[in-house]
Specification:
Radius of gyration: 15 Å
Largest sheet: 2 strands, parallel
Shape: elongated
Strand order of the largest sheet: 1-2
Number of strands: 2
Distance between the termini: 23 Å
Number of helices: 4
Length: about 70
């Protein structure tokens, strides 16, 4: 979240009007999509999915975002 806020502030400072697009899909679908990929990065992401997901903070109402359901 902190990095999103910083990015929006920087964009605003130079005259842009940033909009956050939050693309959502349930964990089961995300895991299925990752499992179809090949390579070390996909394997790592699938193996550590829960740990990686904990690093992400969903936007809240103060961030004025657009949610896109992608499933």
């Amino acid at each position: 979240r902190k990095s999103r806020i910083e990015a929006k502030e920087k964009a605003s400072q130079i005259g842009f009007f940033p909009v956050i697009h939050y693309v959502y899909a349930p964990d089961s679908i995300l895991k299925e999509r990752i499992s179809k990929r090949q390579g070390a990065i996909a394997e790592h992401n699938l193996k550590h999915f829960d740990e990686i997901k904990q690093l992400f903070e969903e936007p809240d109402e103060t961030e004025n975002y657009i949610k896109i359901d992608n499933y």
